[in-house]
Specification:
Layout (H helix, E strand, L loop, with lengths): L2 H10 L11 E6 L5 H6 L4 E5 L14 H4 L2 E3 L4 H13 L6 E5 L1 H14 L14 H19 L4 E12 L6 E5 L3 H10 L2 E8 L2 E5 L9 E2 L7 E3 L3 H8 L10 H10 L3
Parallel strand pairs: 1-5, 1-7, 2-3, 2-4, 4-5
Antiparallel strand pairs: 5-6, 7-8, 7-9, 8-10
Helix pairs in contact: 5-6, 6-7
Amino acid sequence: MDKNTLERIKGKINEIEKVPITAKVLLYSDPGIGKTTCAALSPKPLIVNCEGGTLCLDKFKGFYEALDIKVIRPDTIEDIQNIFWYLKSGDHDRETVILDSLGEIQKMSMDEILRNPRRDPKHDADTPILQDYGKNTQQMRKLIRAFRDLPMNVVFTCLSSEIKDENDGSVKVGPNLTPKLAIDTMGYVDVVGYMYSKDGTRRLLTQPKGKFMAKDRSGKLGNGMEDPTMFSIFGKITDGEITAPDFLDDILLEVKNNEG
């Protein structure tokens, strides 16, 4: 090992107590359950809005200034990659980044792969082949891992779908991605939460239950929670280092009053 490499490795070694605690979370659910609302209620969030709208956040627009929510709308995968490099530079004040949603980003990636002028023209431009799926999955893996490794809180959102186990044929419910990417993504993050509504209350499942896939690597979230927000999730994971604003209950009441 040469001297420069040795110094570079030594420079990467940190005492564990000096490593900042951040959380990497995947939220998935059926449409309209409140993933974006939950994710946006987080410390200084930047929402990478690939869904094409933020109407759901109008429910607490009276708190926009206090929450300090920022939104950016990427048009291409390159835009998303540039957002990563901007956040990695550290020249910003954001504490949380939200990729909303992984399903839309995967579709964006596949559309660009199919439009690539270097793609063999003998293949239908609207129908992916096995090679296209391979490129799409690899591109998504790199992108998800890159954002996960940012020194800040990271939230991925995704719709839910059934995933068939290739080994035993059983069917689980997980994020609506291609099966291999769904399993990989759940492995990359600290928390996988399934959001659902029961008796008019939003709930978050953070441990596997029946066919629903979930996990909590921190061991601090129990089986889940009611009316989840990223403030409450991050607060538990960081043992209170991240605290919710005093007006959070007012926001949750505003959300409930404006549902439907």
